[in-house]
Amino acid sequence: MNYSTLKKSVALSLVALTGVASLAVAQDAPATTSATKVFGGRGQYRTWSIGVHGGVLMPVVAIGGTNDFNKWDANLGYGLNIRKQLGHSFGLELNGTRGKLSGTNEGITNPAVREFETELQYAVDLRGVVNLGSIDFLRRENSVGFFLTAGAGYMAYAPKIITGAGQTIDWKGKAVGPADDKHDAKDYVKGFYIPVGAGVKFKVSERVNFNLGYTMNFVDADNLDGVYAKGQTKDKFSYGYAGLEFSLGSSAKPSLEWTNPLATMYDELKDPTLRQEVEALKNRVSAVEKSVEDLKKDTDGDGVADQFDKCPGTPAGTAVDGSGCPLPKVAPVDSVASNVTGFEKIAFDFNSSVLKTESYPTLDKLSSVLRENGGKVTVNGYASSEGTAAYNLKLSKDRANSVKTYLVNSGVNASQVATKGNGEANPIASNDTEEGRIQNRRVETARN
User: Fold this and answer.
1) Of 42, 82, 153, 337, which residue has the fewest beta carbons closer than 10 angstroms?
2) What is the C-alpha to C-alpha distance for residues 75 and 299, in angstroms, rounded to an integer?
3) What would the pLDDT profile of 11-42 be if each residue is shown by its tens digit?
């Protein structure tokens, strides 16, 4: 193929591709906006695509290096690709290319090989595709993107050379098989190659991309051009192409490769449903705060919240009990010593140091005596025999401290109350029965 014919072929290919793209734009309906979520997974996107491409095959690469021929030809190549997008910035692509490569040793006197032409039956590779700029802080949507590719592949090719003496050597002729079977697999040399490339893609529509790319292919052999020239060198070829890529899947889903995750996150944060949930949460918090304030409200200032005050409106300075009612006037110490300050018992539930409500009246009377008449008391805590001795000792101390805390909170000076934990010691009933154990779970208060 001469250069003018090649230009015509490439031009016609590009015109055809542009025509297909225009038709796709005209027929492709806009994709329905999908309520995609940042962590919603790939299932909410279109991730498969298929493409066609055509361009120029050359037995050289852009980065240079040694070549077996000093003049290379540009020949038409074409192929297909299938891609699976695994994320916003990365996908896997299966790519196949066909065409031919050729070159000459022009201007060399008596060359061993004057020219070559290699039929590329196929070059199939699996490559990773990295999309650059998929995460864009400046734009919500992009219509132009750059990409890099690299992978590994397997190819089949058949070189044909013409020596300096004019002899034609066709590698297919060296194959074992029917001489008239042009496509016999044994006629082609097989080998591996590494494709490395870059390109730019244009978003023609929601379904169609127009791609321009360049791939350098490094062959694991030195016979791509039919010549073993350097021994340890490897042959290479390049492919510059234009192509169309068609996104597959439901039109209700956006394409993953063109979706900006930052825009998705922004939309998710601005979701009116989420804002409504936040407002509702704020209202619930305000209601809880108001309820807490109501619980703390103490109109008469007697130290008992209105919520629990059974005697609202108590005059200022009046001593009240735990329910907010005035305490009865206490007789002189001598007259009450026998019934409230001599020897008091406070009962507790099993494995508990929490005061029972029925203990409040007794403690309130004791508190009143201590506040009005002074003096000191010793609070002795006890436990029944269940559990270890060490645990019961701690529990008895906790019970004694619960009584002291109540007295101090009611206005008694802490120095007036001493506590002591006695554990299982000094039972007042048998620990062999539940009735006896109930009596042993106690605190005894005695004036000093």
Assistant:
1) 42
2) 97
3) 444 444 444 444 443 344 444 444 777 777 78
